[in-house]
Amino acid sequence: MPQDATRRTYLANERTYLAWWRTGLTCLAVAFGAGRIVPALGGHARWPYALLGVGFALLGVAFMVLGSRRQREVHEAIERGEFADLDDKLTRALTGAGVVMGIGVLILVLVD
Question: What total of structural domains would you count in the chain?
Fold first, then answer.
């Protein structure tokens, strides 16, 4: 019996959407840990950790919003029988934000 590739493609799109959400939720958890828990445990100055937490929270929200947008774009492309390429600007922006957050963590680890 032949398999319907379109159904598998829709399901793959759903799994990818959920991966965007998992990434967003992970960023939110890191934001809370960095912004609230770490300074409370170590008696550190709160502001650099809060700033880093805000950055991770914004990144997490961005992943969820962009994941939703991407899911719709891919869904519509599948319906038209086309391919929806991931925007290079978006990829570079998310990568840049991740690099900035990573450098922020590195600085806090080395300084504190």
Answer: 1
**Domain that includes residue 64, residue range:** 5-111
Chain-centroid distance, C-alpha 72: 17
Task: Note the pLDDT tens digit of each residue in 29-69.
Answer: 999 999 999 988 887 789 999 999 999 999 999 999 999 99
Q: Can you tell me which residue has the tokens 């899911």? A: 71
For the chain, the maximum distance between any two Cα atoms, rounded to a whole number of angstroms, is 64
CA atoms of 41 and 38, how far apart (whole Å): 5
User: Which candidate, 1, 5, 21, 6, places its Cα nearest to that of 71?
Assistant: 21
Report percent pLDDT > 70 for the chain: 97
